Amino acid sequence: MKIFSSDYTFDYSWEEVSTANWRKYCPWNDKSTHVIAVDTLSRSVDEATGILRTERLITCHQTAPAWVVSLLGGSTTSYSYETSYVDPASKKVTMCSTNLTWANVISVNETVVYQPDTSVSSAGHERTMFQQEARITALCGGWQKIKSKIEEATAERFGENARRGREGFEHVLEMSRRVFGEEKERVRNEKMAV
């Protein structure tokens, strides 16, 4: 098993990050063009806790290394299943995803958590911690060397996509802040004109 982990701090409030998270794969994100579609399968709010639970199917265009495709076959379209939990009381977003494509060959289980960074945030300058971990396990039988190669190649690709995804999400956050700021200003001006 290979473990990929990454920590990052976004220079945006938890409210901004948790809201923009739903637009992570929009046209503003030119770094995650491999994501073809995001389909919401279900969404519900737990009345007792207020936690929003969402299930989504994420469709991607992935190019696996040629040696993997020749060994295992497959398509360039891949699917992942994601379950997310937004807890507004504790200000925590948790997203858990697993691969559906090649699930009999490799298991990729990812957990992402967004929560306020209280260590450096101050009034008017809130920040949000991002923690990501993926557990990658080759399930195919055979030589350990082949399993290790598959895990290494998957972890490397996962890290590249994670870096690009973070860069793209930064752009989504920037655009969201600007658009919401412009809308707030427009509404304020309309109220003052009345």
Largest sheet: 7 strands, antiparallel
The radius of gyration is 19 Å
Helices and strands, in order, run as: EHEEHEEEEH
- The portion of residues assigned to helices is 25-40%
The side-by-side strand order for the widest beta sheet comes to 1-7-6-5-4-3-2
Low-confidence stretches: none
Average pLDDT rating: 89
Q: What's the total count of β strands?
A: 7
Distance between the termini: 63 Å
Question: Tally the helices: what do you get?
Answer: 3
Q: What fraction of the residues are assigned to beta strands by DSSP?
A: 35-45%
Q: Which structural category do the helix and sheet elements fall into?
A: alpha+beta
Overall outline: elongated
Question: What labels would you give this structure?
Answer:
single chain; 194 residues; alpha+beta
Question: Any overview of this molecule?
Answer:
The longest helix has 50 residues, at 144-193. 33% of the residues lie in helices and 37% in strands. The protein is elongated, with a radius of gyration of 19 Å. By secondary structure, the protein is an alpha+beta fold.
Topology:
Blueprint: E1 2-10, H1 14-20, E2 35-45, E3 52-61, H2 66-72, E4 77-87, E5 92-99, E6 106-116, E7 128-138, H3 144-193
What's the short version?
The chain has 3 helices and 7 strands, in the order βαββαββββα.
